[in-house]
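The methods section describes the discrete structure representation at length, but only in general terms. An entry of this sort, consisting of the sequence and the corresponding backbone structure tokens, reads as follows.
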Amino acid sequence: MLLELKRDSRAPLYSQIVTEVRRMIAGGALKAGDRLPANRELAKTLGVNRNTVTTAYAELAAEGLITSRVGSGTYISRVPAQAPASRIREEAAPSPMSWESLLSVQSRDNWLQEMSIFAVRREVISLALALPSADLFPLDDFRRCVDLVLRKQGRVLLQLGTTSGYAPLQEYIAAQLALSGVRVSPDEVLITTGC
């Protein structure tokens, strides 16, 4: 397998390997079932670090173009569909950072998007996005509370705290739980974030 790498290109070497392998698959030089060289072997042939080839193979595997079998090797698993013109333009000037290889594929929650159509109706309170109506938030009261706390304890609050949470809040929650008949000590309360 002969790949051309342009060392003076702004495109990372692993990205060039991915592009070349894709080109070879699309052009018919590599077919489904063909075995690719081992990482070390290809790295040595190309004069690159083994991690460069490993990263390229990982991206190709994420696209479903290749499959690795332990003890057997790495094989072409499928031929990609013809890339649209916008994709070809993208590959002509690749980004120096391959975000696709860093981010997992996210499937869209279409049902959640469909639920947002109910948010415009006045008689419906939509819980689809975990956002209450902005009209219900007591902004002025909240601002006064934040100002008061920042004036009294701002320097302490703006530092990194303990992993278990803000101690006065733990004490307050423990006291509130005691009013409900649940006896816990403040150090048994763990403060987390979320919605």
The domain at 13-95 is CATH 1.10.10.10 (Arc Repressor Mutant, subunit A). Residues 86-90 have pLDDT under 50 and may be disordered.
